[in-house]
Amino acid sequence: MYEAIGAGGLENISYDIAVDVAQIVAGSPGRAAAAERIVAAAGLRARQPLDAASALQSETLLDGVQLLLLEAEGIAPALLEPLLIRLGAMAEARGVPLIATVAQAQIDIALGLLPASALLQCAPSDADRLGAVLAARREPVARLHDGMRDQETMRMRRFHEEVARIADSLSRLTRSELPERSASVRNDAMAFRMDTDTVETDAAEIRRVIRARRMRAEFFDGDLFADPAWDMLLDLFAAELEHRQISVSSLCIAAAVPPTTALRWIGTLNEAGLFDRRADPSDRRRAYIALSESARRGMERYVAAVKRAGLSLV
């Protein structure tokens, strides 16, 4: 048995030792040590960590490796782009899970260059890191003995249930059995019209709703009202009315939750068919997020329904 001691939030958690091997590529010895601690707590063996330059030259980088971890913070910009391309391509070709922990300024380039199968984290907690490692293992054999696994399972179940609920709600608003309503976009006022009730909104109104939601944190603990999925839907809806594109890093800020939590929500909402990930045709290092067609129609009809009922947007 292995017991993690003094692991900054992972103390007294016991695991069965596994034979899986992890390769760590890090921008600094400190980042490598943080990753090694998490890998050990998950019951894996870590190879000698590599710096970015060595990883770019290594021909045996993934030989016998079951998990690849990239700690991108501290990697020079000139090395980061080729490293992301190489690690992403190698991991995808070998079928090796890749977990990339990046600084906030690196989110867009990482999302633009890494394959969709890579798991992206930003400023993760120890629990986030450990959960990602355990989830990435194709045949997880580590067993948590302090109830942490059950807590994490319940948390992720609630997370997916909430995404499913939002997706279902928007889907019901766009199903064909609903009365058909004409829809048109007015370029002059950035407003749309739906049905014969002449229900309109514009980006400024949606932005006021977002601002009002943010103001709650001035009077109450922000965690009490954390609703990242809806905050991101509102932000993307306002951006569409403004004819603007939103980067992943900007959307993370709009979510008003830790970056790793926001990235997890973005990935799940994309899988649920609410978000579309679009590459920048002029810069492959950048990716944008937009509402899917069904999500956009759902938001439009939600606004229309609220206004016809004489209620305020929230």
UniProtKB/TrEMBL annotation:
UniProt organism field: Sphingomonas trueperi
Name the record gives this protein: DNA-binding MarR family transcriptional regulator
